[in-house]
Amino acid sequence: MNSETTQRILEAVDAAFDAQLATTRDFVAIPSTRGAEGPCQDMIGDLLRERGYEVDDWHIDLDELKDLRGFGPVEHDFSRARTVVGTYRPATVSGKSLILQGHCDVVPAGPLEMWETPPFSPVVRDGKMYGRGACDMKSGTIGALYALDAIKAAGFKPTARIHFQSVIEEESTGVGALSTLQRGYRADACFIPEPTGGKMVRSQVGVIWFRLKVRGHPAHVFEAGIGANAITAAYHLIGALQKLEAEWNERAKSDRHFKGLTHPINFNPGIIRGGDWASSVPAWCDVDCRIAVLPGWLIAEAQNEIRACVAAAARDHRFLSNNPPDVEWSGFLSEGYELKDSAEPEAAFGKAYAAAYGGEVEDLVFTALTDTRFYGLNYNIPSLCFGAAGAAMHGFNEYVDLQSLRKSTKATALFIAEWCGVEKA
């Protein structure tokens, strides 16, 4: 790709950036928490149709996915779950095909009074856009769409097939991305514009979600000694799992990518429910947990270690020793992923990055996970993950930095042009 083509695409991104932000605001304003992603998928479908893409919009059938590698159990109402894919087919095929993917699901906002501005009323202030999902990752999804627009506005069209995929469930199971593969969508590479602070994800953890189901023995609190408190028993198990977390972090010191990080394995008891009455010894407690695993670790083996840890802790507890807790798998059962066999797409992206940012892209060892794992692990499709900078993902006052978003959109547009090839429209 020559310098004139590069410059025209860069200028096209700048020219449409205000429109890009307006679309991003509209997208962020939709409260697409788990089970409520439909309006976002409607919006993406409309945006794709307006641009002339072939649109495939289907309901996800879990029975078709449950035996595939990386499937995680879904516990909520899934009757309205959909995936949307827009396909561009070139008149002339000379480049390499590409999947561009973003997820539209967002995590809950938490107590609204703890936000400075309402989470689903996005605002732009001091060069940042605030709102739930503004960073993770609605700005990246819309950025990828406007990157394609920039190529067209610059007077070019790609010379390879492109699938623009909007998925759900990235934050809890990944079955949205898995559904696209089950549907048959493939390409020579995949690019996911998650917020990475302008770095390329080199290696990322996998994640396991599980639930501790602890049962106690109820009693009136005036004679609490005859009962067994399920909530305090659950804390005993949490302490044991924190020791397992420490053991896994010791093991991580031998990993070639993660050995440089102080604490790459994070265990989190994220939801706790229990008891029925403040003056009754609680008879039940459920704790929903998340723990990371490193690339190359087998999910089944990690599950066995979790079970063994919980069983050993129960044996050391007066009540649980005779009333052992259950462990249920409640979402992610996801392997870690290391970017491999990706010299060609990385070289193409390196050129794009140099033109948009200058210099060479830095690697990122990621202690979260992304949907890239499905493409790389299941089908050997090299899957790049790169995007803008921001902060407070999953927290209060989440934001994306707008100048970073502008640059990442430019890099995405130039990568598409370099990888897929372009010809004059």
Description:
With 425 residues, the protein is an alpha+beta fold. The chain has 2 domains: 3-204 and 336-424, Zn peptidases (Aminopeptidase, 3-Layer(aba) Sandwich); 206-334, Alpha-Beta Plaits, CATH 3.30.70.360. It is 35% helix and 23% strand. The protein is built from 10 helices and 19 strands. A 6-stranded mixed sheet has the order 1-2-7-3-8-16, with helices on both faces. Strand 4 and strand 5 (128-130) form a beta hairpin.
Question: Topology, pairings included?
Answer:
Layout: H1 3-15, H2 17-28, H3 38-50, E1 54-59, E2 82-88, E3 98-103, E4 123-125, E5 128-130, H4 134-153, E6 156-158, E7 162-167, H5 175-183, E8 189-192, E9 200-204, E10 206-215, H6 230-252, E11 267-274, E12 284-293, H7 299-315, E13 326-334, E14 337-338, H8 343-356, E15 363-366, H9 372-379, E16 383-385, E17 390-391, E18 399-401, H10 402-420, E19 422-424
Parallel strand pairs: 3-7, 3-8, 8-16, 9-15
Antiparallel strand pairs: 1-2, 2-7, 4-5, 5-18, 6-19, 9-14, 10-12, 10-13, 11-12, 17-18
Helix pairs in contact: 1-4, 1-10, 2-4, 4-10, 6-7, 8-10
Q: What top-tier CATH class of the largest domain fits best?
A: Alpha Beta
Instruction: Count up the helices.
Output: 10
How far from one another are the termini? 15 Å
Helix content percent band? 25-40%
CATH superfamily of the largest domain: Zn peptidases
CATH architecture of the largest domain: 3-Layer(aba) Sandwich
Poorly predicted sequence stretches spanning 5 or more consecutive residues: none
Structural class label: alpha+beta
How would the global form be characterised? Answer: elongated
Question: In angstroms, what is the radius of gyration?
Answer: 23 Å
| SSE order, one letter for each helix or strand | HHHEEEEEHEEHEEEHEEHEEHEHEEEHE
